[in-house]
Write a structure and sequence with these properties.
By secondary structure, the protein is mostly helical. The protein has eleven helices and no strands.
Length: about 220
């Protein structure tokens, strides 16, 4: 479905200086776990090995292109991080990624070469989570500090206080602003890609990101 470029909510002016926007981005990068490779000695890792073999067979039979198989495998770490941000639970996130990969495999014929694989996969994962959690109305949240707890190295006390403050400011955002900010700022998606995943106009994505940055800057004393 094509995404309109007309905003359905007013977009605030980009009043934050570039260095403040960059500082918010750096702090979020510290807080959010990196997109790490999947350990092959895990259930998800074993699924990934089987999927690689199936993709090679499909490529040999000309059911898919090599680019599709290579890009699908390469995107798994990013899918896993996106799932973790949505669930706050590693086991649940891995289950979601596994379900996403299986759905992508089952519907591989629907993907058109040259279109956006990132948006397609992220949309499958996001919709799966929304369907799974619609009764609980759960959006991206850090359950029991799952995000901060996944940092590669333990910060010192002052640094942890800063991270806790950032997590609190992030949790205080409206769910749609938080999700949109993370897609654009942490996952590095273009506004058009985020709009396709979220099913909203590009202007709405820009507005949400701008408002979220303004809130974080104020909460963290950067503005």
């Amino acid at each position: 479905m094509p995404v309109s470029i007309i905003a359905d909510e007013p977009s605030p002016s980009e009043g934050l200086p570039r260095h403040v926007q960059d500082q918010i981005g750096r702090r979020l990068d510290e807080l959010i776990p990196s997109a790490s490779a999947v350990d092959t000695d895990t259930r998800l890792g074993r699924v990934l090995l089987r999927l690689r073999a199936a993709l090679l067979d499909a490529e040999a039979e000309r059911q898919i292109t090599k680019a599709f198989g290579d890009d699908l495998i390469a995107l798994v770490p990013r899918l896993r991080r996106f799932a973790l941000l949505r669930t706050g639970n590693t086991a649940e996130a891995d289950d979601m990624v596994q379900a996403t990969l299986m759905r992508a495999w089952e519907h591989r014929s629907r993907f058109k070469d040259g279109t956006n694989l990132v948006a397609w996969l992220f949309t499958i994962l996001r919709n799966a989570h929304l369907n799974q959690r619609k009764r609980l109305r759960r959006e991206i949240e850090d359950v029991d500090g799952a995000i901060a707890g996944a940092l590669s190295s333990p910060p010192d006390q002052e640094h942890r206080v800063a991270l806790v403050a950032l997590q609190g400011a992030l949790n205080a955002l409206p769910a749609e602003q938080r999700e949109t900010l993370l897609l654009v700022t942490v996952d590095g998606l273009r506004h058009e890609e985020a709009a396709a995943i979220l099913g909203c106009p590009v202007g709405t994505v820009k507005s949400r990101v701008s408002r979220a940055r303004e809130h974080l800057a104020t909460a963290l004393g950067l503005s």
